[in-house]
Amino acid sequence: MARTSAGRATRRAHLLRCLLGPLPAAYSEYAAVGPSSAPRIWTLLVALFRARVGLHALGVSLIIGVVFAPSEGSAQAGDANAGKAVYERKCAMCHGVKGDGKGAGAELLDPKPRDFTSGVYKIRTTANKTPSDQDLFRIITAGMPGTSMPPWDVLPEKERWNLVAYIKTFAADKFKEAPKKLELPKEVSSSEASIKRGKEMYEAIECHKCHGNLGRADGPSRPELKDDWGHPIAPANLTKRWTFRGGASRTEIATRIANGVLGTPMPSFIDSVEKPEDVWHLTNYILSLGPESPAYATLVTVNGTTDAIPDDPNAEFWKKAAPNTIPLMGQVIVDPRNFNPIIDLVIVRGAYNDKEIAFHLTWDDPSQTTAEGRADAPGAAKKIAADAIALQFPSKIVPGTERPYFLMGDATDSVYLLRWEGGKAGEVSASGPTKLKTLEGGEVVSKTVYENGQYRVVIKRPLAGKGEERPTFQPSTFVPVAFQAWDGGAGETGTRMSLTSWYYLRLEPPQSNRRFVVPPVVALLTLVAMLLVVRAASRGRGR
Amino acid sequence: MMRKALAGFAAVALMAGTAWVAAPPFADAQGGGTVEVEVKYSGAADVQTLKVNKDTEQCGKEAKVENIVVGGNKGLANAVASIAGAKGQPTGKKAAIDQKGCKFVPHVIATTPGEVDILNSDGILHNIHTYSTANPSINKAQPKFKKTMTEKFEKPEFIKVTCDVHSWMLGWIAVMPHPYFGVTNESGVAKIENAPAGKQTVEVWHEKLGKVTKDVEVKPGATTKVTVEMVKK
To answer: Cβ separation of B139 and A267 shorter than 8 Å?
Structure first.
């Protein structure tokens, strides 16, 4: 079940990424930005288009795939020759015709596509280097969450086994050694004691060096990590289980800890924990670090309150407010694009009273970067910018479904941005992603907390907007809202950002105490009326 | 009776003959000599300094990446000198490499196929990540409580060893096919003991400068000096 929902999320993300494709055609003035659009952009767009056509054509099987969990199936001997044809149609675009991971789309992908000629596979259930056929089949079927590798359960099972047989031929000598099944220690079910022991072990074996104190992938060794091919590689964010490359089930997590992830810095721990069962305690601890799935919101609710709204992002008030989790994706419409965004979701909480409206935003960013931090940062040679996030609204909130262009508006319909950058919030009016105008004289306040790889920010402003360029928020209305985020430490700035399309925000009026008074009064009155009717009726019969 | 005796005689003669044929190389190896190889490098040393952002108590505030270390008199350190193409049995000695001050100490070890002890004197998390083709690559965590790990390297190869936690850490394990090798010290000198006498070829390997060979006449029971010059490719 867990795998189905994870698979669905990946599939959704992949489809969204693909669906972004046609937008430039509709807004050709934006597509025309940067006539120097390198040909490789087109190569990728063609690849995405092809992938989309493929997925659409197999839409029915896709729905079946969503409804039923990917069938595991017992290992079958595939036909490598038949697999070659499927490979060249479906896989070569990224993995290359020669299987060396150097397909046309590879340049823009991060993590890079697997180089099959090396015979090195990240995800194995084996104790040696050779993965089992079932391991390869599983990855083809379920894909690799958090990467560009989609689940290929749209292909008939037979074809997937043929692919397994074919990709093995790229490193035939490496597969001469038979896979040796990894024996995990006896399973320990989750309990408070086990989670506690897992936490102790997490600290003792220093998982935090890469994965961070609370598992948010912000450890001090993070910027140095490289895979065996010399490409930079990010540690897993342990609070986002649905992005685990090799799956998020208990056994899958325990296997990764025991076995390591081959070709990456993640080492094997089976011989390096105090007792073998610590592998399970660690698994239980990791499972306790985050939710099973992100539970994305479709509507952002901002609740009314009669109290003052605290500035402090860590205030009890905000812990009680309902979270709305919004997924973000890379901006791939105008140059320079962001094919591998760092920030993949933001958790939004909102509140308003009769004077002001406030937004509480939570998102993971492995490094805190401010504009001032640029010069003395250890990676000063790298291009870095200030971290930033923005809430986008139409400049004027009008009834109806018409909204400005979601990518920061256009010449006819501008947008208003509540934009926080490097610790300070302000207001911006935009009529296009590069046509920004700072609005002066506003009354925006913000407060920022950065801890263990996570930002928590409160941004407040008056409900009523001053002038033409600031919208006024009114209770009980639906307000279009969109989000944009930048990880400055990863060089994201300008159009290199994560974003969303339009969502709706609803200001729920504060619930008054009348709901506790009116229904009992009505019930009482009804009862009295009934008694009167009964009395009148019995008096009439007695006469 | 007579036939039996004849057969016995023939068997003894055959064995003796085999022993006589097998004997000379054995005797030759015993009469080996020492080769003192001096490796020179005229180019500039290449040692980079990095700022350390963690474990400064063990690693110090600065880390050194020792790509090319040149000592006094242009001697090149960390090069492995050996007799090319020689044959011989493993030394049976277990080699060891330590992780101390967030450095592999020594930077290069040379050993015959067999086990190597990997020590963790730092008492912090390191991970032994090897890059090899002939031997299986390993990537094993070595947390603070794991003082020694023993790994097997069975095939001759120059194996790069790194630690991903401290990305500047780099060491080499040279697995040699025979026991006739030495690693140059900080003044660029390596001693090959007990080298087979006669015309031999000395091969010098360096992680950045590749391989260079030079012919040498090894005199039994004496020390032969040879100087090898390495250049940047």
So the answer is: yes
User: What is the pLDDT at residue A511?
Assistant: 74
Question: Which residues of chain A does B167 touch, with a Cβ-Cβ cutoff of 8 Å?
Answer: 221, 224-226
User: Among A264, A287, A310, which residue terminates a domain?
Assistant: A287
pLDDT along chain A (543 residues), means of 10: 47 46 36 38 50 44 42 72 96 96 92 94 94 96 94 96 96 93 96 97 96 96 93 95 95 96 96 95 97 94 93 96 96 93 96 95 94 49 82 91 93 96 95 94 94 97 92 92 95 94 92 80 94 90 62
The Cα–Cα gap between B136 and A115 comes to 18
A520 close to B (CB below 8 A): no
Q: With pLDDT > 70 as the criterion, what percentage of chain B qualifies?
A: 87
Nearest CA of chain A to the CA of B145: how many Å? Answer: 8
Tell me whether residues A221 and B131 touch, CB distance under 8 A: no
A435 CA: distance to closest CA in chain B (Å): 39
Among A138, A123, A164, smallest CA distance to A73 is for: A138
- Establish if A243 belongs to a structural domain: yes
A33, A60: one domain: yes
Pair (A93, A136) in one structural domain: yes
List, in sequence order, every residue forming a beta bridge with A454; answer none if it has no partner: A364, A451
Residue A307 and residue A277 share a domain: no
Write out chain A residues lying below 8 Å of B136, CB-based: 128-129
Cα–Cα distance measured from residue A419 to residue A406, given in angstroms and rounded to the nearest whole number: 16
Domain edge (last residue) among A287, A314, A342: A287
* Chain A residues inside the 8 Å CB shell of B131: 228
Residue A388: which domain range? 299-508
As a whole number of angstroms, the distance between CA A113 and CA A76 comes to: 25
Rounded Cα distance between B162 and A482, Å, is 45
Say which of B137, B142, B164 has its CB closest to residue A265.
B164
- Which domains can be identified in chain B, with CATH numbers? 31-230 (2.60.40.420)
User: How far is A336 from A100, CA to CA, in rounded Å?
Assistant: 28
Cα A318 from Cα B110, distance rounded (Å): 61
pLDDT value, residue A4:
46
Report H helices in A233-392: 250-259, 278-287, 316-320
| A404 close contact with B: CB closer than 8 A | no
Number of domain units in chain A: 4
Quick check: A276 contacting B, CB < 8 Å?
no
Q: Are residues A336 and A403 in the same domain?
A: yes
Query: Is the domain of A238 the same as that of A311?
Result: no
Residue B29 reports pLDDT greater than 50: no
Residue whose structure tokens are 């020590």: B119
Which CATH number is A199's domain given? 1.10.760.10
**pTM of the full predicted structure?**
0.81
- A293 within a domain of the structure (yes/no): no
Q: What is the pLDDT of residue B28?
A: 45
CB A444 within 8 A of CB A459: yes
Tell me, what's the pLDDT at A69?
Answer: 42
| Residue A265 contacts B, CB cutoff 8 Å | yes
pLDDT for A45 equals 52
> Are both A316 and A458 inside the same structural domain?
yes
CATH of the domain at A386: 2.60.40.1190
Do the beta carbons of residue A287 and residue A250 sit within 8 Å? yes
Number of inter-chain CB pairs under 8 A, A vs B = 68
| Integer angstrom CA distances of residue B126 from A178, A231, A279, A281, B160 | 30, 21, 18, 21, 15
- Among all chains, which residue has been given the structure tokens 């084996």? A126
| Residue A346 shares a structural domain with residue A470 | yes
A274 chain-B contacts, CB cut-off 8 A: 145
Q: pLDDT tens-digit profile of B89-137? A: 998 899 999 999 999 999 999 999 999 999 999 999 999 999 998 998 8
pLDDT for residue A345? 96
Q: Are residues A46 and A64 in the same domain?
A: yes
Query: Is A294 part of any domain?
Result: no
B-interface mutation test, from A180, A202, A207, A272, most B Cβ less than 10 A away: A272
A:360-389 residues touching chain B, CB 8 A cutoff? 378
The answer as to whether A58 is a domain residue is yes
When CB atoms are compared, the residue of B127, B166, B167 closest to A267 is: B127
Question: In B, what residues contact A, Cβ < 8 A?
Answer: 51, 53-54, 124-125, 127-129, 131, 136-146, 149, 164-167
Minimal Cα–Cα distance from A229 to chain B, Å?
11
